[in-house]
Structure formats: C-alpha cells, structure tokens
C-alpha cells in the first residue's frame, strides 16, 4: 500500500440501533463487548445461530445516542429482521440509514489523515458521522460512516486520494481479513476457523451471547482443524467454492479473491491445517482448478 486512499463501499450499508436498552439488547446477542463502544472506541462483532454458526458480522460505532452498524448491504434486511426477532420488550429501535455511506481509508498515512490514533478500534466524530481504525487490525487502515452526499468531499479534504473498492480488496486479502459472507458461509462457518479470536472478534470475558457454548468449546478444547488463510495464486483465479486439492485428496475450499495484477492474484481459502503441513513437508502443490496455491500465514495468526 502506498499513498493514503479512500473508497466508498457500495457493498456496505448502515443500520441505526437506538434507545435506552441498546447496550443490553446487543450485548446478549453478539460475540464482543458492546459496553466498550464509546465515541472513541468501535468494535467488530459477530451474530451467530444458537448452535454457534455464523450469520452476520459487522462493525459497531457510537454516534450520538445511537449505535451505527456497518454491515453487508445485500444482507442488511436479513440482519435487521433477525435482530428485531430478539427485541421483545427492549426499548430499542432498529432502522436502515440510507442517507449514510461506508468508506474505507487505506495505505500509508491513512489513519493519520483522519486524525486517529494508530490503534485498532480508535474512533472519533467526523463530519456528522464517525471514523474509526479497523477494530480487527490497524494495519488495514480505517473505516468511516458518513453522510452519503458529503462523504467523498470530507475524505478528499482530509488529504486522501480517490481509490477503488478493488484497491482495498487486495489490501485486505494480503492481510488475510475475511469479508463477511464472501468468506464465511452463513449457518455453516464457525468463527475460530476464520480468525475472529486473533482479530478481536470474540470476547471471552463478556458473558453469555448467542452461540457462545459451541464457540467456547471449540476454543478451549483446541478443536480448530481448518483455517481461512491468504493464498498466492499461480494461474486463473478460482471461483469461490472451488475445492482445493492436495494430490487426489480434498484440502479445503476457495473463498474470495482478486484477479492478477503486477504482484499476482490473491485469495483466501479455508484450508485443512494438516494438508497445509503435508504440502509444506512434501513440496507438493495445493491446487484449485487449474491454479496452484501457496498459503501465507498472516503475521497476526497464532495457528
């Protein structure tokens, strides 16, 4: 990543959760501690099935008397519907905010340009919205939730050049960061196979949340046998869902990717850890379709 840039993400939407019970309401549902969200701190979190399988993940930032949820646009209605099912007598409202846009700022100096501390989750108010360092990993840059009609001007005035969503996609792929349901399969994926523990997406001290039992059992019993990993791709970019093979044995499955550029194609793949180890020892290649894959363990990963 070179000069600081920004991109408006049409793939993201914003939900507004307001009301005096908003902290308690979300706290019992999601995987991280909502009580830590303030005007200077944002979080990334996940919403699971009762069996601990992935449904949604999103960012939560405070704005006035509301929480703003930065979520997938294509699945925002589903998230709103599922959250509303648990509202019961809680004094909360959940509304779509079509007037707000989500942007990412990335590249050297992007966090400084937005006046943010270089610390995951650091947040501040910006142009009737909020900016925050990505709570998962500060190295990928920052995010901003801003009025849609002024977002581009605000970010340009901050000294950020106009980039593209594709530029950002390659940045997050190189760091091994998943992108919602592009990389996790709703009602099937589990958090700890996808880096949520290391990436601040699970709080083991916050108390109960929906799906906690399976998540905790997986964590404490060391049951993780697969991991989502960055892969360098030699050959045509495999479609998401393409099986990854080691010889004639299944080793995993492709997730999202970015096509070839000067430094080659990149992707994420959910890989069996034993297959990755065997491939490294035998020097045999992992393959997906006609492509050869080289896994690259991210600096933040502990497995």
The CATH level-2 architecture of the largest domain is identified as: 2-Layer Sandwich
Oligomerization category of the chains in this entry: single chain
Helix content: 10-25%
CATH homologous superfamily caption of the largest domain: Probable tRNA modification gtpase trme, domain 1
Strand share of the residues? 25-35%
The end-to-end distance, rounded to whole angstroms, is 26 Å
What does the model show?
The chain has a six-stranded mixed β-sheet with strand order 8-9-10-7-1-11, with helices on both faces. It has a six-stranded antiparallel barrel with strand order 12-15-14-13-16-17. A five-stranded antiparallel β-sheet has the order 3-4-5-2-6, with helices on one face. β13 and β14 (249-258) form a beta hairpin. The protein is globular. Helices cover 18% and strands 33% of the residues. The protein has two domains: 5-164, Probable tRNA modification gtpase trme, domain 1 (Gyrase A, domain 2); 180-295, Elongation Factor Tu (Ef-tu), domain 3 (Beta Barrel), CATH 2.40.30.160. With 303 residues, it is of the alpha+beta class. The chain has seven helices and 17 strands.
State the main characteristics.
2 domains; Elongation Factor Tu (Ef-tu), domain 3; 303 residues; six-stranded mixed β-sheet; six-stranded antiparallel β-barrel; globular; 17 strands; Gyrase A, domain 2; alpha+beta
């Amino acid at each position: 990543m070179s000069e600081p840039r920004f991109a408006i993400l049409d793939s993201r939407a914003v939900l507004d959760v307001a009301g005096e019970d908003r902290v308690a309401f979300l706290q019992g549902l999601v995987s991280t501690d909502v009580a830590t969200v303030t005007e200077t701190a944002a979080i990334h979190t996940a919403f699971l099935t009762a069996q601990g399988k992935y449904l949604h993940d999103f960012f939560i930032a405070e704005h006035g008397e509301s929480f703003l949820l930065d979520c997938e646009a294509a699945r925002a209605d589903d998230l709103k519907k599922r959250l509303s099912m648990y509202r019961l007598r809680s004094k909360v409202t959940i509304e779509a905010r079509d007037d707000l846009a989500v942007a990412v700022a990335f590249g050297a100096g992007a966090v400084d340009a937005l006046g943010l501390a270089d610390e995951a989750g650091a947040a501040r108010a910006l142009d009737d919205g909020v900016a925050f360092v990505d709570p998962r990993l500060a190295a990928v840059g920052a995010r901003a939730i801003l009025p849609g009609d002024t977002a581009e001007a605000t970010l340009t005035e901050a000294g950020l050049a106009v980039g593209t969503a594709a530029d950002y996609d390659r940045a997050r792929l190189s760091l091994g960061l998943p992108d919602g349901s592009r990389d996790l399969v709703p009602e099937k994926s589990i958090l700890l196979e996808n880096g949520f523990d290391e990436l601040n997406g699970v709080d083991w001290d916050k108390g109960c949340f929906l799906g906690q039992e399976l998540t905790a059992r997986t964590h404490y019993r060391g049951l993780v046998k697969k991991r989502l990993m960055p892969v360098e791709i030699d050959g045509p970019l495999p479609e998401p869902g393409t099986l990854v093979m080691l010889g004639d044995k299944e080793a995993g499955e492709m997730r999202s990717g970015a096509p070839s550029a000067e430094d080659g194609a990149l992707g994420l793949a959910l890989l069996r850890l034993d297959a990755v180890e065997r491939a490294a020892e035998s020097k045999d290649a992992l393959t997906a379709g006609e492509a050869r894959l080289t896994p690259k363990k991210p600096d933040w990963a502990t497995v």
